[in-house]
Amino acid sequence: MVPRRQLTLFLLLSVLTSAVGAEQPSRVFSFAYKTRIATVAAGEGPVHVFIPLAVDNDQQHIINEQIETSITGQVEVEDNYGNRFWHGSVKVSDGLPIEITINTTVERRVSRLQSPEISRPINHHEQATMARFLGANAKVVVDHAILKPILQEVEKIADSNDLAKISRAIYDWVVANVDYKKVGTGWGNGDTFWACSERYGNCTDFHALFISLARSENIPARFEIGFSVPNNRDSGYIAGYHCWVQLYLPTIGWFPIDASEAFKHPEKKEYFFGAHPPDRIHFSTGRDLRLGEGHRAKALNYFVYPYVEVGGKPFAGKVSRHFSYRNLQSVGRHLAADL
To answer: pLDDT tier at 13 (50, 70, 90 boundaries)?
Structure first.
């Protein structure tokens, strides 16, 4: 008979390492999202704090979620895209720091489809259901004159009216003509005008331009944002966000794209047209987000960092944030070594 301790460890090991394989089809890791708001003066208010929560969908399963806060709040869902978030509030600040820690255990799966060969046109029903992913956003224009020269180049590359070929031509054009770099100011806002004129930026700028071009060709495209979670280290800190795109092709469905990663890793360009590896965690979808009651100021350009309002205005003081992860599959490997 197998001793109880060994049997328990074996079962835990099986759960944690079931996703491990030659191609690593999925990963299990914990993600810590910590926020501290320390400088809201006593007597000011009301104070509203909004923190995005990780998405649970086909690519990402939330195994466990623990929320520890110094003020009362609740989990809410915004209306347009169904993003989950924690919303805490106080009527009047007592001057003490506000602290929020969210620990999430997630299984992130590979999102991968074979490169499309052909895709039929979008029908009227699809246009109606995909309207939010075909229209413009504040910084993501559609059918604008600034896009016309690029669209002419794209259509020449595609040499076809097929949406799959046009999608690939957009991808090729963006990867070849936009540089990933963070120089000066102006980049990082996900602004199509910036990407068109400056031809450089970070992932938000790459994908704003990609989405503008796709939607102008009547291809629904949605913006997703979260964090890169390295899979070459068992644990560590994460400096900032990462974003990517899903586009919709009839007969195929939602199709994953990561143009900025393709630029940074040209040897993986073919892979990133049709795949998102499990090296990320998804927190929200869409642009121009309004977070329901308590959100008084203008819509958020995108939502991945804490958002705080005091007296109905965006808080101008310091909001510290700290992100870290731990690969739980490494726990399984260490347990195995002890058996």
So the answer is: very low
**H or E element in which residue 80 lies:** none
Of 35, 15, 38, 39, nearest to 27 by C-alpha is: 15
Predicted confidence (pLDDT) per residue in 174-225, tens digit: 999 999 999 999 999 999 999 999 999 999 999 999 999 999 999 999 999 9
Helix axes 163-177, 148-158, angle to 10 degrees: 120
What span, in angstroms and rounded, lies between the C-alpha atoms of 180 and 175?
A: 9
Q: What is the DSSP letter of 96?
A: S
Contact present, 296 and 309 (Cβ < 8 Å): yes
How deeply is 236 buried, as exposed, middle or buried, from its count of CB atoms within 10 A (0-12, 13-18, 19+)?
middle
Measured CA to CA, the distance from residue 98 to residue 37 in angstroms comes to: 5
Closest residue by Cα to residue 172 from 226, 115, 118? 115
